[in-house]
Amino acid sequence: MSWEMRSVRWFAVLSLFFVLVFANSAWAIWVDADGSGQESVNILSTPGSSRSPSVAVNSAGTTYIVWEDTSPGNSEIYLLKWNGNEWVDTDGSGQESMNISKTGGPSEYPSLCLDNSGNPHIAWHD
Predict the structure, then answer these.
(1) Of the candidates 5, 9, 35, 99, which lies 20 to 30 Å from 49 by C-alpha distance?
(2) Is residue 50 part of a domain?
(3) How many CB atoms lie within 10 A of CB 81?
(4) What range does the domain containing 115 cover?
């Protein structure tokens, strides 16, 4: 897989968790975030380019992912979290608020970190 791949499928690799399995001599398998297989490894399908992902997991096990996407016509910054069942925006009610930059110019190169309470903080170039 090329590092220059321009689709969210590239992020799918980031949403996979490594699991060690001792049954049937299988030492390791890759599964998606829900742990049941690989049926939902694609976080989001968009027509634009998706790139520059940053991932963090807080002490409660909540996984956050931020990336740059060109689907709205210019680069914007998107943020989703894994709620245990699906990827949702930070209010947890769907994906309607995942665009967190919402600027007229290009927003690029996001960086994600978590504070001591496990809350996400994102910086990017705009």
Answers:
(1) 35
(2) yes
(3) 22
(4) 9-125
Residue 57: inside a domain: yes
Strand 108-114, strand 17-19: pairing = unpaired
List strand residue ranges (DSSP E) for 38-104, in order: 50-57, 63-69, 76-82, 87-88
Which residue's structure tokens are 């919402």?
102
What angle (nearest 5°) sits at the alpha carbon of residue 42, between those of residues 31 and 112? 90
- pLDDT value of position 86: 83
88 in a structural domain? yes
**Rounded mean pLDDT for each run of 10 residues along the chain, 126 residues in total:** 38 42 50 64 75 91 91 89 87 88 92 94 94
- The model's pTM is 0.70
Counting the structural domains of the chain, the total is 1
